[in-house]
């Protein structure tokens, strides 16, 4: 692993009696796109502020390229922030806004001019230097805020919900642009959002947070496919989450039946929760499936039907299907063993990772035999 550019080690932040960050450990490598994802108030902005140097930590260490920077003031850190409300200066032109930090640093005028032009070019607003900020659209203001940050050539760019003020279409476009910009600049981005789709689409690695803790970290695919607990499964995409029991390695019971699964290493008879994504369920003739549900209602979502159903034990099911089903009818549900994700109650990330590794190896061994 390359030398991390940012590390938080056992970071705790308290305001009076409230612990806002509870033992945060994060490692950011150079040149990657990271996302802090979690509900409002979980501490995402506070993490950005501790890295930027706007907030002191109560306990723990903040490191930049291996050196402790707890006492280094914000303006001496090689980190820049793009804020949610952009914080542009309305009475200055675009070029003056972008030049602001360099002017403060007393950078020579000719260099300022060159770097502002480069930064505006990178955000595709090369001809906008003389415009008033108020004459720009929301998306353009967003890009200027980014240009103003990257003109300082930071090694780390912190982005606090930068797309939240934009409409859905522009937001999607900016997701592509930001991802592309991060790859072209080759610097580390730490992006904050409470939008799981945005996090999944853009990140190399996601940290899922709740109530001042990082619950799980990993690639978007890992987190989507193997959520560590109920909160993560529910927060990342839509899920069916059902109570069940481990019968043996690779055998789990739920909904009144036993099913083959891809999980092992959990003690027999241990109560577990099973996650099945709505898109992994297939509707079939009830005669050909162990599990039968009754269709309650459905919504057409453009490229699929979202179907709500109930099983004989009263569990609710959500199914995504390209074909509609008739309300009130009984249908069978099928799925593949690898589409069942078994979660233990209260499992910690390290135990979860160790278990995944074990059964992935066992899976390979099984495949070979
Ligand atoms: N200066 C402060 N004094 C006291 N409490 C604070 C202070 N700053 C933040 N908090 C509290 O810390 C918690 C975390 O806030 P933070 O802004 O980090 O959350 P967030 O995940 O970024 O939320 P959002 O998505 O709403 O911005 C909140 O409960 C907030 O009220």
From TrEMBL:
Domain ABC transporter: 6-236
EC code: 7.6.2.11
Pfam families in the cross-refs: ABC_tran (PF00005), TOBE_2 (PF08402)
InterPro entries reported for this sequence: AAA+_ATPase, ABC_SmlMolc_Importer, ABC_transporter-like_ATP-bd, ABC_transporter-like_CS, Mo/tungstate-bd_C_term_dom, P-loop_NTPase, PotA-like, PotA_ATP-bd
UniProt keyword terms in alphabetical order: ATP-binding, Cell membrane, Membrane, Nucleotide-binding, Translocase, Transport
CDD domains: ABC_PotA_N
Catalyzed chemical reaction(s): ATP + H2O + polyamine-[polyamine-binding protein]Side 1 = ADP + phosphate + polyamineSide 2 + [polyamine-binding protein]Side 1
Example GO molecular function: ATP binding
Key word Transport present: yes
Top-level EC class as recorded in UniProt: translocase
Protein task: Part of the ABC transporter complex PotABCD involved in spermidine/putrescine import. Responsible for energy coupling to the transport system.
Complexes and interactors: The complex is composed of two ATP-binding proteins (PotA), two transmembrane proteins (PotB and PotC) and a solute-binding protein (PotD).
Family indicated by similarity: Belongs to the ABC transporter superfamily. Spermidine/putrescine importer (TC 3.A.1.11.1) family.
The protein, known as: Spermidine/putrescine import ATP-binding protein PotA
Organism expressing this protein natively: Levilactobacillus angrenensis
Lineage: Bacteria, Bacillati, Bacillota, Bacilli, Lactobacillales
């Amino acid at each position: 692993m390359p030398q991390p550019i940012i590390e938080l080690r056992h970071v705790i932040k308290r305001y009076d009696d409230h612990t806002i960050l509870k033992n945060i450990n994060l490692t950011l490598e150079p040149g990657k796109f990271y996302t802090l994802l979690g509900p409002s108030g979980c501490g995402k902005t506070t993490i950005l502020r501790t890295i930027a140097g706007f907030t002191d930590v109560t306990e723990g260490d903040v490191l930049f390229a291996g050196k402790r920077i707890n006492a280094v003031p914000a303006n001496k850190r090689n980190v820049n922030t793009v804020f949610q409300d952009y914080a542009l200066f309305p009475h200055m032109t675009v070029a003056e806004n972008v030049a602001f930090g360099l002017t403060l640093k007393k950078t020579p005028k000719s260099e300022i001019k060159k770097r502002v032009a480069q930064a505006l070019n990178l955000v595709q607003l090369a001809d906008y230097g003389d415009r008033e900020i108020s004459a720009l659209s929301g998306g353009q203001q967003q890009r200027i805020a980014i240009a103003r940050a990257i003109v300082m050539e930071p090694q780390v760019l912190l982005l606090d919900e930068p797309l939240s003020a934009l409409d859905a279409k522009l937001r999607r476009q900016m997701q592509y642009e930001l991802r592309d910009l991060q790859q072209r600049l080759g610097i580390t981005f730490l992006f904050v959002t409470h939008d799981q789709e945005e996090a999944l689409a853009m990140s190399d690695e996601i940290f899922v947070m709740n109530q001042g803790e990082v619950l799980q970290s990993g690639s978007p695919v890992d987190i989507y496919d193997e959520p560590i607990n109920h909160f993560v499964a529910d927060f990342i995409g839509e899920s069916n989450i059902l109570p069940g029991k481990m019968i043996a390695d690779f055998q789990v019971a739920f909904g009144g039946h036993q099913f083959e699964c891809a999980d092992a290493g959990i003690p027999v008879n241990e109560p577990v929760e099973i996650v099945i994504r709505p898109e992994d369920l297939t509707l079939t003739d009830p005669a050909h499936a162990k599990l039968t549900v009754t269709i309650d209602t459905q919504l057409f979502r453009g490229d699929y039907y979202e179907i709500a159903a109930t099983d004989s034990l009263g569990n609710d099911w959500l199914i995504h299907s390209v074909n509609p089903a008739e309300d009130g009818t009984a249908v069978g549900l099928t799925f593949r063993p690898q589409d069942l994700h078994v979660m233990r109650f209260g499992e910690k990330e390290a135990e979860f990772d160790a278990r995944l590794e074990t059964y992935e190896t066992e899976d390979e061994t099984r495949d070979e035999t």
